[in-house]
Amino acid sequence: MPAPQKKILFCLAGAFSFVCALGAAAAVGTQLWVRGSILCTTGALLVNASGPELEKFIGEIQYGLFHGQRVRQCGLGGRPFQFSFFPDLLKIIPASIHVSVILFCTVLIIFTLVGMGFFLYNAFGSPYETLHGPVGLYLWSFISCSCGCLIMILFSSEVKIHHLSEKIANFKEKTFTFKTHSERFADSFWIILACSLVHFLNALLIRLAGFEFPFSKPKDSGTATGAADLMY
């Protein structure tokens, strides 16, 4: 591929990486990772609520990696309540998984920026070492994509397997018991998925620029020719 087209592809990949870094940084700071509704089972059982009456006992919850908000509905109107994970909820949540999610988000942002720098370096500079050249670009893209996948896997397990929403809803509750009524991942979670897909796309752009994948085995015609020459 001609050099100008390679520069365009590398610049495009660098721009994608920069957008991903900004998106991931914005996603980490928001509380739009999970949205759902919580049912006050104690209040609903006391009045034997059903049908339209049950809506008076369904509140809302949304949270991110650091803070969130829930609206407590027990038949007497909504009561909003703000909460933060550090240090309030550390005793009731799987802290190791939650900290790992934050750690991998940080690694994702850092390596995305590193990848952006090396894409631009390959576009306008003269790379001379392995990690500065195409192999390095594959490496940064692979690490960033893997971090994004790990973030989604760990956070999904924290929410679904460890019932994070219910634990938050029942935090400091002594009279009423809450149960998750509905739950879905919100915008910030899908931003991380989009970042992972973009890093995979960057790897395809590197291949489109004419560079083989690191573990591919090109045909070594020189060895076969040399062996044939020794026979004569």
From TrEMBL:
Signal peptide positions on this chain: 1-21
Annotated compartments: Membrane
Biological processes per GO annotation: equilibrioception; sensory perception of sound
Membrane topology summary: Multi-pass membrane protein
Keywords: Membrane, Signal, Transmembrane, Transmembrane helix
Membrane-spanning segments: 97-123, 135-155, 189-209
Any one annotated GO CC term: membrane
InterPro entries xrefs: Clarin
Pfam families referenced in this protein's UniProt entry, alphabetically: Clarin-2
Keyword Signal: yes
Superkingdom of this protein's organism: Eukaryota
Homology family: Belongs to the clarin family.
Protein name, as recorded: Clarin 1
